[in-house]
Design goal:
heterodimer, A: alpha/beta, Rossmann fold, 11 helices, 44% helix, B: five-stranded mixed sheet, 12 helices, 22% strand, globular
Chain lengths: 320, 327
Amino acid sequence: MKNENKELGLKLLKDMYLCRKFEEKVQHYFSLGMIHGTTHLSIGEEGAAAGTCEGLEPQDLMYATHRGHSQAICKGIDINLMMAEIFGKATGVCKGKGGSMHIADKDKGVLGANGIVAAALPLACGSAFAAKRRKQNVVTVAFFGDGAANEGAFHEAMNLASAWDLPVLFVCTNNTYAMSTHISKVMKDTDIAKRAIPYGMPAETVDGNDSLAVYECIKSARDYVAKNGPMLIVENTYRISGHSKSDGNLYRTKDEINAWKARNPIDKMRNDLLEAKTCTVEELDAVDKETTELIDKAVKFALDSPYPELDDVYHDVYAL
Amino acid sequence: MPKKEITYANAIKEAISEEMIRDEDVFMMGEDIGVYRGAFGVSGDLVETFGEDRIIDTPISEQGFVGCAIGAAVAGMRPIVEIMFSDFMTVCWDMIVNQAPKMRYMFGGKVSVPMVLRTASGGGTGAAAQHSQSLEAMLCHVPGLKVIVPSTPRDAKGLLKSAIRDNNPVIFLEQKLLYRTKGMVEEEEFTIPIGEADVKREGQDCTIITYGRMVQMCLAAAESMEKEGIDVEVIDLRTLLPMDTEAIIKSVIKTRHALVVHEAVKTGGIAGEIIARIADSEAFYYLDAPLKRLASEDVPVPFCPVLEKGILPDEAKIIATVKEMLA
């Protein structure tokens, strides 16, 4: 997409750089054994996250996937607190109780990344139900992957949202792999947008690596959803990083990965901005440099933060 | 305080109605709870009183609508969600086990899930293995949930009102066979705190710890034994999670004997937990006989009424066990 909106272009680029650099740091410290557990990186999928979140209104709500770092960052979670969370620190956005897979901050409209595939879709119907009941101009985004489109919860939520005209924006980040299983092995018809048809809701498919195209698509979809009810958006993208720490990439070729690396959303945005003469190389490099510094600060904040006290395990099991 | 006699089902309906009037964020959804009035008739005329916007019929999509209730609770509403039979909780187990009770903890205390999940539990109706289970022990294994099993109309009403006002996910296991039973309930508004057991009968010789529809059976057994000079105390737990351990220990220290009775199957049942709590408390030193439990046989609930009755604890089994302990 020809990119002549400098402010928007630089904002999307900054978001994507933050996501990419954040996850590269996570990957680095994970490989050093300084980050515990597991992580699901979304390197290569930043365009979908940035374009989607930028297309929303600040009051909108969002449920992220287990591969949700980028989605949370683009929705505005404090990267220092999020990095500290992934390091398991007391200063973490979830006080070290959630980790990579459960990043959440209600104050930023992030109602949580979810470790259960497709669980977010029914939950998103709930906040949409509340918004509709209270006549609030709030849309809830449910992020999910192509794999989740085969879960029962996907179909139950799509049906519920359409039957009740709930303001849910269903956003599928289709990276074509459910962990290692290619979409063509598990769907007769891989056009996920068609799954909106039986539920009587509109759908649109967009190039998820073109963050500006995603933004435009979501912006109008968001308007539609607020006024009419649910809609399905399929953002086609690719996960360059492995599924998680244990991924040997045995299910795909280096050539395939390299081809998608060449089409990655950050380089695409840079090229588009340069081609349209909207920005200079120096302006783009300044964003690169600025985001590197921000992520370095986030890492320092996380490293300098203390671990929680053992007594903290008993807190927040129940609300008063 | 003036009282009236109402059924267990009506007590539940009254609690819902009063809380819906009190707080407009309260609403109820579930399958066939509107004009059909609920599979067990609990909702009665609620839909006429509150309209279809607040008494909401759902599709047969337990994951979908329980998830929706959780999401609405996170967004600040107070949903009551009805699952027609407690057995159907298993088709939305993810929502009950992984979502509702975990969100607050995983998200560092920033959200709460003020939801009540009401469901009809237990057997005795000839509905066989997929519509008769008592699955409370599975729920009690999930920190973050609260689990209530009321045995009288008064307890049902007072505890449900507390559950609706509670800021946590509460599973409210209604006893199918008790829906038509009657009891005295205050005319005026009241609530019963979650987590407090109730001594339904005081006694000196043996403590029976029970809950749900077994309470009446244990009380009847206690009456019979009284004629033979055996003085039994019956504790109705009412709330299983959190459990009122203190009430149990106190009673067992007094009577030196403890029998746990429940309708759920024996293996992995809540009786094991209760017995463990007694065994690792000071009450252990006061015991004059081994701790005992009476529960359903470890089989799926059979259809044939003769068989179904046969697998459950009954008055005769309770009396025989107590006498054996006191012998």
